[in-house]
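S-(hydroxymethyl)glutathione dehydrogenase
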Amino acid sequence: MSNQPIKCKAAVAWEPNKPLSIEEVEVAAPKKGEVRVRIIASALCHTDVYTWSGKDQEGKFPCILGHEGSGIVESVGEGVTSVEIGDHVIPLYTPECKECKFCTSGKTNLCQKIRVTQGQGVMPDGTTRFTCKGQEVFHFMGTSVFSEYTVCAEISIAKINVDAPLDKVCLLGCGVTTGVGAALNTAKVTKGSNVVVFGLGAVGLAVIQGSQLAGATRIIAVDINEKKYKLAADFGATDFVNPLSEENKDKKIQDIIVGMTDGGADYSFECIGNVETMRAALECCHKGWGECTIIGVAEGGKEISTRPFQLVTGRVWRGSAFGGVKGRSGVPEYVNKYLRGEIKVDEYITHNFNFEQINDAFTALKGGDCIRAVMHY
Ligand code: NAD
Ligand code: AHE
Ligand code: ZN
Ligand code: ZN
């Protein structure tokens, strides 16, 4: 146990859309049921960019963003039993308390034990552990890994194999687990099926990886950035469609897919966060059985629509958060799968930066050549 605050560097988002500022922050000691983690590596997910942009209804500023990270337990608060100092861990934005109605339902990974305070940018007791220049700074997604030290609830910490390279498996804190899990757990892609993936960032590529693991025979990759196709092919995509190409620009993407697949996709996934492509992803599904999984996060205030007839005639719209993976029980297993060579992780890392260069990571992810930029602390 430690009851001393720590002073360290963190990337503070003072207000939306302004570069993050590397500041000295004070990180209070973990309280009862909390864990303080020294972050070793993190990666930037599009959701960080989304909240930073000010379009997230739950965005609170000033805050410390970051939810795809890894680290080592530095100290634990009273009553913490599941981890100890020195354990290697991945902070979880989808905690797992193992006792709430959601955890015990057997139907979802969406533990709700601390969801309300997490969305308010504070710890479960309603207060923050971060202070900068005398001002309180909000947490983000219960993780705030863009800080050399962070405090998380014990239920938001997955203990992982100490042999795993922390600057790689940080990607299992969101993008890779989300995509692979959406294919395997949420959609339950079946052997021999055809799959369509909209958006070829880390999440879409991971859906392709999961679909290939599930035995899909045809995987159609859709993106307006053709530079993404090479990596998509490496992950198992068999066909590539650019909705904006000269050939396609006057057609509806859903019609193109239906034409390519003798009636539509068995499974489609939206990994962009755009309500128009969410509609297209549903409407490209095969009549009678095609299932569309929404993974992308749309701007606050946006809504999806389609003709109800699309659903009446057997297409299904569903959503997936963190790939349906239960954090504390599932993430350590994903890490072990990576260590056994059963899932790829390194291949998503296109950029590496020192933590202080975090604004360059934002520029890279928005620039179109980056899948994941890893920050080293
Ligand atoms: P990313 O920005 O790296 O990738 C998005 C891709 O979509 C890019 O390749 C881009 O070129 C492509 N794209 C953009 N507009 C397009 C269009 N109109 N048609 C076709 N392609 C288009 O993002 P990411 O980190 O892979 O995240 C993808 C989405 O998933 C984001 O919305 C993110 O917030 C969300 N996300 C959700 C979860 C979850 O648990 N549900 C987890 C992680 C990320
Ligand atoms: N705050 C947003 C919702 C954002 C969202 O949907 N987040 C996903 C994870 S994205 C990770 O990159 C998620 O897990 N959602 C479930 C949850 O409980 O937040 C908003 O629209 O208010
Ligand atoms: Zn994410
Ligand atoms: Zn729970």
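thats it. The two ends are 23 Å apart (CA to CA). The chain has twelve helices and 17 strands. bye
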